[in-house]
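2024-03-11 09:14:02 INFO worker-7 job=invfold-0412 stage=load source=structure_tokens
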């Protein structure tokens, strides 16, 4: 007997190259079957999802959900209810000094899956608001590779990599030192690094030169300075070379990490981001980033296809996380799914520089499955 059966939806699962009408059954917290015409009497809970898109549960690779423990954190439950996100990856809100609190008070009680990049800075991102902004990597005394290694090794069930925020705002005059330390810890643990980049120094090419295949450059389509494009909108050589080397390009929209100008230029040359993520935090949760579903809609407005944006929020982030149990609806995978619809209308999208573009459609979620059970429908919000 199945726990849940979704009947009649359009299943889009890029991990399996699937786009068609299928029923999906869940049992024991996992995907149990996917085929047309599954018997409704075989399930305890049957949901008619005709007319809806069923995707693997959305993964937001760059978020800040240490709510209550850091000044930038937002509540994962609230964001999930409006975006359909089933897996949040926190991008360095916590460091070695406060991961235990993040784990006990936020990660463990949460219905959604929360994974984390551990900040190389001991206190994590500790001073981030409209009125107080102190980069956690400005003072090198806060960076201790051994402490970071010890805590990460003890929490490898939730730690997916190391996070370093470099740039004038996050690191002051510390340059590449935080990233170099993060890479050293990650190398010892066999994990990737996610590198934040804001205003120089260091420069975009300095950061790219030290990243390894499988490491993640977030804010990859950021505006000037440290944009991926020249003043004439051509793509910088080091960006193309990094892509060839296997650096993963993550949007990390946030409050300052994405501009339509960079996005248009990159897409015009056929360079699609590997991962779409929101970088949702207290300064952008009410705009311009909102959540990962809003970021998906923005990239559809820029010309990416529905399948592309689903792949960039399911299969691709799962690959970046080195996980084969999420981001897919294959039988035996985690029983997470997001139900979507493409709503028609006139919708205005805004980037971090205030530029607006208009589209005639946007994605909206209509239901969430977590751990093989119906968690929420749009009507239940």
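2024-03-11 09:14:09 INFO worker-7 stage=emit residues=381
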């Amino acid at each position: 007997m199945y726990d849940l059966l979704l009947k009649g939806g359009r299943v889009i699962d890029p991990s399996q190259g699937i786009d068609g009408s299928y029923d999906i059954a869940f049992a024991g917290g996992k995907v149990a079957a996917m085929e047309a015409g599954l018997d409704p009497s075989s399930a305890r809970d049957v949901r008619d999802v005709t007319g809806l898109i069923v995707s693997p549960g959305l993964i937001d690779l760059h978020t800040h959900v240490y709510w209550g423990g850091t000044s930038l954190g937002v509540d994962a439950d609230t964001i999930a209810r409006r975006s359909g996100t089933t897996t949040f990856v926190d991008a360095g809100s916590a460091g070695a000094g406060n991961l235990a609190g993040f784990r006990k008070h936020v990660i463990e009680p949460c219905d959604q899956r929360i994974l984390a990049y551990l900040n190389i800075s001991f206190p994590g991102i500790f001073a981030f608001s409209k009125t107080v902004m102190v980069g956690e990597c400005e003072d090198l005394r806060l960076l201790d590779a051994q402490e970071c290694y010890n805590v990460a090794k003890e929490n490898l069930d939730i730690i997916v990599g190391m996070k370093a925020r470099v740039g004038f705002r996050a690191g002051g005059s510390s340059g590449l030192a935080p990233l170099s330390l993060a890479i050293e810890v990650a190398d010892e643990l066999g994990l990737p690094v996610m590198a934040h980049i804001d205003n120089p120094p260091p420069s975009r090419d300095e950061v790219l030169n030290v990243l390894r295949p499988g490491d993640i450059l977030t804010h990859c389509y950021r505006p000037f300075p440290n944009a991926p494009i020249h003043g004439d909108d051509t793509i910088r050589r080091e960006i193309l070379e990094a892509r060839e080397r296997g650096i993963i390009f993550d949007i990390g929209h946030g409050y300052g990490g994405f501009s339509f100008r960079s996005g248009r230029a990159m897409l015009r040359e056929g360079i699609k981001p590997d991962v779409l993520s929101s970088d949702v935090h207290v300064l952008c949760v009410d705009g311009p980033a909102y959540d990962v579903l809003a970021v998906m809609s923005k990239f559809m407005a820029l010309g990416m296809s529905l399948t592309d944006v689903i792949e960039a929020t399911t299969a691709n982030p799962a690959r970046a996380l080195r996980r084969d149990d999420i981001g897919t609806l294959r039988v035996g995978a985690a029983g997470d799914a997001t139900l979507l619809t493409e709503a028609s209308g006139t919708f205005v999208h805004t980037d971090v520089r205030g530029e607006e573009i208009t589209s005639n459609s946007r994605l909206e979620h209509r239901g969430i499955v977590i751990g093989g059970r119906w968690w929420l429908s749009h009507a239940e919000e």
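2024-03-11 09:14:09 INFO worker-7 stage=report msg="The chain has a mean pLDDT of 97."
2024-03-11 09:14:10 INFO worker-7 job finished
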